[in-house]
Amino acid sequence: MAVVVVVGTVVVMVSIPELGPADQIGFALLCLLIVWFCWRQFSVAAIPSADGLVVRNLMITTRLEWAEVVSVRFGSGRPWVQLDLADGDTLAVMGVQRADGERADAEARRMATLVAAHTSTQRND
């Protein structure tokens, strides 16, 4: 999509000769903004590691240690996986969305399994 935006912008800028330098800069900035948005949307993910989980949503990237994640929820018509955090807050994980069907269900189960494995204690209370 980003390539289409760049090509479309170049075509518009070349095909309208009466565009001044300010207009061309405006088109270029708009093009860069749209390309950045496409890149951010493409890079939405939840990346687990031994230390914790990196949740890269559309605007914010959050690094969590496993101990910070209390539970993983994906039911009740939620559009994305939702993490309940130890501080009482919640965090949507846009990288796992209901629209992905079975793949999303499998990823939600995998994330819940990882949280359980990394946060269990001997008493597991």
Fold topology:
Blueprint: H1 2-15, H2 21-42, E1 45-48, E2 52-56, E3 61-65, E4 69-73, E5 80-85, E6 90-97, H3 102-119
Antiparallel strand pairs: 1-2, 2-3, 4-5, 5-6
Give a short synopsis of this structure:
With 125 residues, the chain is of the alpha+beta class. Helices cover 43% and strands 26% of the residues. It is built from 3 helices and 6 strands; from the N terminus they run ααββββββα.
Descriptors for this entry?
single chain, 125 residues, alpha+beta, 2 domains, three-stranded antiparallel β-sheet, 43% helix
Number of helices: 3
Shape designation? elongated
| Rg, Cα atoms, Å | 21 Å
Percentage of residues in DSSP E strands: 25-35%
Mean pLDDT across residues: 89
Biggest beta sheet attributes:
3 strands, antiparallel
Distance between the termini: 48 Å
Question: What percent of the residues sit in helical stretches (DSSP H or I)?
Answer: 40-55%
Count of distinct structural domains: 2
Arrangement of strands in the largest sheet:
1-2-3
Low-confidence stretches: none
Care to count the β-strands? 6
What is the H-and-E element order? Answer: HHEEEEEEH
Structural class: alpha+beta
Model description:
It is a single chain. The protein has 3 helices and 6 strands. 43% of the residues lie in helices and 26% in strands. Helix 1 (2-15) runs antiparallel to helix 2 (21-42). The model has no long low-confidence stretch (mean pLDDT 89). The chain is elongated and about 75 Å long. The chain has a 3-stranded antiparallel beta sheet with strand order 1-2-3, with helices on one face. The chain has helices spanning 2-15, 21-42, 102-119; strands at residues 45-48, 52-56, 61-65, 69-73, 80-85, 90-97. By secondary structure, it is α+β, with helices and mostly antiparallel strands. The protein folds into 2 domains: 2-42; 45-119, no CATH class.
